[in-house]
Amino acid sequence: MSDTAHPRTGPSWAAPAEDDVDLSVVIPAYNEERRLGPTLDAVTSYLGAAGDRFGTWEVVVADDGSTDGTGDLVTAHPDPRVRLVAADRNRGKGHALRLGVLATRGRRVLVTDADLAAPIEELDRLDEALGHGNAAAIGSRSVPGASIGSRQHRLRELLGRAGNVLIRLLAVPGIRDTQCGFKLFDGDRARAAFAASRLDGWGIDVEVLQHFHRADWPVAEVPVRWSHQAGSKVGPLDYGRVLAELVRLKVRSWRPADLLACAAFLLMAVVLYAGRLVDPAHRYLPDSLQDQNQWEWFFAVTADSVAHLRNPLFTDLQGFPDGVNLMANTVMLGLTVPWTPVTLAFGPAVSLSACMTLGLAATGTAWYWLIVTRVTAHRGAAFTGAALAAFAPPMVSHANAHPNFVILFVIPLIADRALRLCTGERVRRDGVILGLLTAYQIFLGEEPLLLAALGLALFAAGYAVARRDVARAAWRPLLRGLLTGAAVCLPLVAFPLYWQFAGPQSYGSVLHGDDAGNSPLALISFAERSLLAGDARRADALSLNPTEQNAFYGWPLLLLALGIAVRLWEHALVKALTVTAAGAALLSLGPRIRLPLTDLTWPGPWALFARLPLFESVIEGRVAMICAPALGMLLAFAVTRMARLSAPGPRWAGVAGVALALLPLVPAPLKAVDRVPVPRFITAGTYKAYVHPGETLVPVPLPDPGAAEALHWQTVAGLGFALPGGYFNGPFGPERTGIYGAPPRATSSMLREVRYSGAVPVIDAARRAQARQDFAYWHAGALVLAPQPNDGALRRTVTELVGRPGTWTGGVWVWDLHGRR
Predict the structure, then answer these.
(1) Helices (H), 314-409
(2) What is the dihedral of CA 383, 389, 391, 392, to 10 degrees?
(3) Which of 4, 10, 200, 700 is deepest in the core (most CB within 10 A)?
């Protein structure tokens, strides 16, 4: 059955043939027999008494399939200017509004709820605002000047406020109250917006205002008087339905090319991690060195803390008895906490694998969104630039081991919000959002945030020189927004940062030596995992390790970037991006730059930062990672310009140049191997007979950054025992200098030396006494030696230290220390 109209109106989906009127009032109604009569009387009386104030008018009641006498009440109304349009069945407020608005013929259209929560007299305010050049004037309960009489239930108010926040974030930025049912529109634009709408529920207000926003039709938010009326049709479940409709709106706003880009980034991440994804619990990325063990442990210990309501900032499961300051380590609470259900259900190996794969895809998507929003609307160009930003050689290198440098999807959001501040519009709102994003990024990774701030500073300096007029207009709102952001961020992170820098097992800084900068040759060479041009030996010689190949952009890409900069130098964006990339590359060379093929060194600009707080712990070679998004945006801008060339020759020459620069950088899948099996002594729970409450299991040698497989034992055992030693950052000595692992003790140092040398030292009474002291300090319940290089020498050493041979059980040698300390 189709929608019907009262005979007085004609077809319900088209405006009547009669002459236009000045004002149409649309009232959606569903089973409003009791409330609608007084509303119609109030509206017609007010408009009738206004004389020529609003000109000719009509009232259109859109009946949404009422089952009471709503329709009869309208048709019996004595004023012929009151009309009825009726739906065949109840479909929702959105459908009723669309039906009513499309039946109007007014030059202006007022939409008001049947309960007149905002009195009809408030039309004066809206009409005045519409007369000032706006396409719509909407009543608001949330702007200065609004007054609320009878209020809603407190819970409904809280849900409404939360919904408005989501609406501003997802659909209609800048409008505080989209759901107040009192709105005045330009008639033609209202009919166009409602005709384009698709939602049948309460979300239609957002959908229509989103249409106005995208069409750049100005909307004024006008304070009104409002009072809650009994008999509201909004139920608790409707808030969830509105949220679902918002999601539908957001998804529908995406172009097919955008969805394809997101899918492509996910596919690229899956291919990169294919070797581990097939069986995360039993596959290992060897180029992660010991970091995969460490990160799985981070996921496991955080999930354990959340599940048992323990302090997630500290644990003594490693580094016993001193423990580990987790906030001072890269534990990424912003991810490990929300991933707790996955970790508890499927294990930390699955959590880490899925999180890094999805996180890398999300990073590519976020850079794509930023480039589309700020650089170019050309989807192909944006995808090219974002792919370079997310899958550049240094990103692939860190993809082996460092989620905090791979999962960077918040960084583009921070950059976008900083750019919004520069416009001077909605400074307070954007400052608040910037503060929230910054706080969250602190719980994802502080070093990437510091590098992002450095990159944004380089960009700002370059753009300010190129466009001084823009810089003069932008610095004040930017400063106000940054101060607002700091005021929001600091209370959220104050205690965790206090714990990090002054809490138990905190430390000053981690020193990486003077050779952590990139060689100039690294910038023009190719990384190990570059599929077509990778050179493992050269990359190894020019980097700290496989996880720190922080440059390796290759000479073809750098030549292309130089050509783009020279050819398009007149554009301020190109100048700023060039300054950003070149400045980051130069800073990444470290405090002293060694000239290739010589013994000469020059002072590097990083020397200005090297001793500053926070910067002193940065591996300066990582600064070159800033080049990836800068080069990606530069490339996206250039590809857009190429696409606009009318001559096919230059256009295809440009495409060929881009392909030749990027093809050598296409990454090969990360190397993956079968994992060393965990001994049955651990998996079968045999250790429980040897390690009593308050005691530790002591692997031989103790776990450290070079050999941390015992952390995997611990996660497989569900964190059923504590470990001395470990792989983490902690303090050392009276200066509390940061080191990797626990402070060495005499016995742990000796056992480590035996593992690497194979030489059994002379064990005398002094060493046995020292070992007893160390075992007591560690609260050792048992020493455990698994098969490994030089395990024979280790076994002889431990036997002499303990004074008796170990027992072979569960695939390991065990020395029970109870009663023998």
Answers:
(1) 333-336, 340-346, 348-374, 379-391, 393-399
(2) 130
(3) 700
In sign, the C-alpha dihedral spanning 462, 467, 472, 473 is negative
Interval 557-599: pLDDT, tens? 999 999 999 999 999 999 999 999 999 999 999 999 888 777 7
Residue whose token pair is 């098969």: 787
Three-state DSSP at 62 gives strand
Helix (H) or strand (E) holding 502: helix 468-502
Start-to-end CA distance of the chain, whole Å, equals 89
Strands 780-785 vs 696-699: parallel, antiparallel or unpaired: parallel
Cα–Cα distance, 275 to 285 (Å, whole number): 8
pLDDT for res 443: 98
The pLDDT of residue 10 is: 35
> Contacts from 612-615 at CB under 8 Å and sequence distance 24+?
613/509, 614/446, 614/450, 615/450
The rounded Cα 787 to chain-centroid distance in angstroms is: 42
Helix residue spans in 595-688 (DSSP H): 627-643, 648-662, 680-683
Q: Is the pLDDT of residue 49 over 60?
A: yes
| Model-wide pTM > 0.85 | no
Taking residues 309-335, what's their average pLDDT? 97
For the residues of 549-608, what is the DSSP string, one character each?
----B-HHHHHHHHHHHHHTTTSHHHHHHHHHHHHHHHHTT-SEEEPTTSS-EEE-GGGG
Residues ≥6 apart with Cβ < 8 Å to 776: 821
Listed residue (228, 238, 257) closest to 148, CA to CA? 228
C-alpha to C-alpha distance for 362 and 208, rounded to whole angstroms:
29
Helices (H) and strands (E) in the chain, counts: 31, 22
Residue 248 has pLDDT above 90, yes or no: no
Please enumerate in sequence order all residues whose Cβ is within 8 A of that of 793, keeping only pairs 6 or more positions apart, or say none: 754, 757, 758, 759, 760
Chain CA centroid to CA 670, Å: 24
238: its two tokens: 């409707």
Q: Are 523 and 553 in contact (CB under 8 A)?
A: yes
Structure tokens at 748: 């742990």
The distance from CA 44 to its chain's CA centroid, rounded to whole angstroms, is: 52
List pLDDT tens digits, range 370-428. 999 999 999 999 999 999 999 999 999 999 999 999 999 999 999 999 999 999 988 99
Once rounded to an integer, what is the mean pLDDT over residues 261-280?
97
Q: CB atoms < 10 A from the CB of 361, how many?
A: 23
